[in-house]
Amino acid sequence: MPLLGWLTKSTDEHPDAIRVDGRAASWVELRRLATALADELRGVDRVAIEATATLETVVGVVGALTAGTAVVPIPPDAGPMEREHILRDSGATALLAPAGAEPTVGDDRRPVVPVDLTRRSDTVHPEPDPARTALILYTSGTTGAPKGAVISRRAIAACLDGLADAWAWTPDDLLVHGLPLFHVHGLVLGVLGPLRLGSRLHHVGRPRPDRYAAANGTMYFGVPTVWSRIAADPDAARALRPARLLVSGSAALPAAVFADLATLTGHRIVERYGMTETLITVSARTDRPRRPGTVGLALPEVRTRLVDDDGAPLPADGATMGELQVTGPTLFDGYLNHPDADAASRTPDGWFRTGDVATVDPDGWHRIVGRASTDLIKSGGYRIGAGEVEDALLTHPGVREAAVVGTPHPDLGQQVTAYVVGDGVDGAELIDFVARHLSAHKRPREVRLVDALPRNALGKVQKTRLSAAG
């Protein structure tokens, strides 16, 4: 089946199959718009695009994929150094930009190919080899400049087909979201998913609760920040009751938000897990009960395992924490221009080292504790998951946000330190509160009250910035 199977074969001319921030196109029109661009991209190996939440971005990405050209999305808010690094490192030889607009990325060394929404074509382009690169997505690690993860057409297809199985995703669905189009969540799942599986798409632009409420979708995608804001707007949340499925990803969803959404919307939200390098590998399913704080079961053809610090296997007993490793058809092809980093990311037998700490229940349900580098705290001989402490803090009525990290301690090695955004709370009270709910050794040794937690574009708390602040 072609990567964009539904778009390739559809004869549907319904005018709003794809709607992005108020502008719409039918399946047939989108295919003809993309084909006209593909005609211009013959022979271009890699092309960069500033991935704004616009119809031009959708046409640009689909046109490049139709031509067999690899797409390098650039975040619209990237600074000049990051943009230049992505362009130089990726080897993109051309830029896509809306017709008549001055490109905001790149320089005069690369030709600009206009995404012209007045041009259409009915050329039939052959389907590229499934092994061909579809996307080069740049992802930041803890050190160095962002690295380009090379993702094949085959891996994207395997990911989307696995999610279609898990979520009963069909052409009868209307997917609604307002996610950025330069990450796996918004671009692969949120745009290429509908084009492969046939669901209509309504991208609402900025993901405000009122826009989600007015969209009348059957499926909604959001990150925890979006869902927290919807849970805080009861009218908007209740408007989602007619939907079939609510999905959260890209960061852990607080248990309190899960509970509030269940009460207001009638839906127990689906959580899933993945990375840029692996796409989505684990998810809750529509045909199984959903458990707050867990991310579900391995998708079809994906395998997972837990290992200790020495790489030895650990039991799936629901309690033992270890590094999660994955293998399967959704894995990336490697880091562009970084063979050493690529080799370090894989085990000798071919499994990908996620760097995430997890537990796995005997029945296969996964719970992500957090990043090994920031969320597994080794204190006084104990291994403490930061997420468990954060969840306990968030049950306090005065706590709005919480992030827990390990900070140096002369006796314990690391101590549990909590950063809290709250109303009318003090550190000593919160330390005692956690000690009453969890084992005493898991309580924070220090609570730092802050006005806000640093977050990235997807709402993930940037714990390295907290750790660096001391």
Automatic annotation (TrEMBL):
Q: Which molecular-function annotations from GO does this UniProt entry contain?
A: medium-chain fatty acid-CoA ligase activity
Q: Name one Pfam family in it.
A: AMP-binding
**Keyword Ligase in record:** yes
All residue ranges annotated as the AMP-binding enzyme C-terminal domain in the record: 388-460
InterPro entries linked to this entry: AMP-bd_C, AMP-bd_C_sf, AMP-binding_CS, AMP-dep_synth/lig_dom, ANL_N_sf
Q: Which residues form the AMP-dependent synthetase/ligase domain?
A: 10-336
Q: Which Gene3D superfamilies match?
A: 3.30.300.30, N-terminal domain of ligase-like (3.40.50.12780)
Q: Which keywords accompany this UniProt record?
A: Ligase
Q: GO biological process: any one?
A: fatty acid metabolic process
Has the keyword Ribosomal protein been applied to this entry?
Answer: no
Q: NCBIfam families under this entry?
A: PRK07787.1
Q: Which family does it belong to?
A: Belongs to the ATP-dependent AMP-binding enzyme family.
Q: What is this protein called?
A: Fatty acid CoA ligase FadD36
